């Protein structure tokens, strides 16, 4: 599944590059101000709420709301930041960043498979405040290069790991925000005990986010008590009976 997604992505990027070369829009790019990481660091706890309408494993997850409506509910109920899917396998598109940005003051993470520096410029051009870098699909060289490109654009990176090996690799880079993904991208199954298993190996220099498979306030509390700084939640929010209330519950101690 992951290989298939990446192959498609490469084709898509090549097409995009020929349709709209970087030199056609790079003058329109304004530098970011790292407000995504700043927002997370200044709070005791961070809820990154994901506007996720579908996933490759489960198909459609939410048809009652649009991305913008979800963003408004999350914003009104205490989320710290938002995550917006732009990959087609999640029913996402790049324009969603601009649309969501128009209805919220919260910083936005572009959720996609970043495998080319072109996408980093494109992310900032679209108005993203942060990008996701997935260690499983990037070499050390790519990780270092992309962290540097993002830094020059004032964009934050949430660097995602799933295994101990990936965590150790990432801790040798300049990454500050590290997401432990509880979802195995090979099988798409989730287990939040992955975060607890990797925790003893995490350097005190990194800000830790637990991602995926977080279902309720109890999961959020367990992660907070273990010393995690925040969580990234999609399904647990969009599939909740009352999304606003679940947002408040997972935002825990925030107002
Ligand atoms: O819907 P969940 O289980 O709460 O997961 C959200 C988020 O972590 C997930 O969408 C995600 C995290 N990393 C990814 C990489 C690719 C695709 C998806 C993801």
Automatic annotation (TrEMBL):
Domain named Indole-3-glycerol phosphate synthase: residues: 2-249
Gene Ontology annotations of biological process type: L-tryptophan biosynthetic process
The UniProt record lists the keyword Iron: no
EC number: 4.1.1.48
SUPFAM superfamilies from the UniProt entry: Ribulose-phoshate binding barrel (SSF51366)
Catalytic activity of the protein: 1-(2-carboxyphenylamino)-1-deoxy-D-ribulose 5-phosphate + H(+) = (1S,2R)-1-C-(indol-3-yl)glycerol 3-phosphate + CO2 + H2O
InterPro entries, per the entry: Aldolase_TIM, Indole-3-glycerol_P_synth, Indole-3-glycerol_P_synth_dom, RibuloseP-bd_barrel
A Pfam family recorded for this sequence: IGPS
Sections of the chain in a coiled coil: none
MF annotations from Gene Ontology: indole-3-glycerol-phosphate synthase activity; phosphoribosylanthranilate isomerase activity
Enzyme class, broadest EC rank: lyase
Pathway given in the UniProt record: Amino-acid biosynthesis; L-tryptophan biosynthesis; L-tryptophan from chorismate: step 4/5
Superkingdom, natural source: Bacteria
Keywords associated with the record: Amino-acid biosynthesis, Aromatic amino acid biosynthesis, Decarboxylase, Lyase, Tryptophan biosynthesis
Family, as annotated: Belongs to the TrpC family.
PANTHER family per UniProt: INDOLE-3-GLYCEROL-PHOSPHATE SYNTHASE, TRYPTOPHAN BIOSYNTHESIS PROTEIN
Name of this protein: indole-3-glycerol-phosphate synthase
């Amino acid at each position: 599944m992951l290989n298939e997604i990446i192959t498609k992505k490469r084709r898509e990027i090549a097409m995009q590059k020929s349709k709209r070369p970087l030199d056609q829009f790079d003058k329109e790019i304004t530098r970011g101000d790292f407000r995504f990481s700043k927002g997370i660091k200044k709070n005791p706890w961070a809820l990154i709420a994901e506007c996720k309408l579908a996933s490759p494993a489960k198909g459609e997850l939410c048809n009652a709301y649009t991305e913008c409506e979800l963003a408004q509910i999350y914003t009104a109920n205490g989320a710290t930041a938002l995550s917006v899917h732009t990959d087609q396998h999640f029913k996402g598109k790049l324009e969603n960043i601009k649309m969501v940005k128009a209805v919220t003051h919260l910083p936005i993470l572009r959720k996609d498979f970043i495998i080319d520096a072109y996408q980093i410029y494109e992310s900032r051009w679209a108005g993203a405040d942060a990008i996701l870098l997935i260690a499983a699909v990037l070499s050390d060289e790519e990780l270092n290069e992309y962290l540097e490109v993002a830094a020059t654009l004032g964009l934050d990176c949430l660097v995602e790991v799933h295994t101990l090996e990936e965590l150790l690799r990432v801790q040798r880079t300049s990454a500050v925000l590290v997401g432990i993904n509880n979802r195995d991208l090979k099988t798409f199954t989730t287990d939040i005990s992955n975060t607890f298993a990797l925790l003893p190996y995490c350097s005190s220099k990194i800000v830790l986010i637990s991602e995926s498979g977080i279902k309720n306030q109890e999961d959020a509390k367990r992660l907070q008590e273990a010393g995690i700084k925040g969580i990234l939640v999609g399904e647990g929010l969009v599939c909740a009976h009352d999304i606003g209330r679940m947002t408040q519950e997972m935002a825990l101690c925030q107002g």
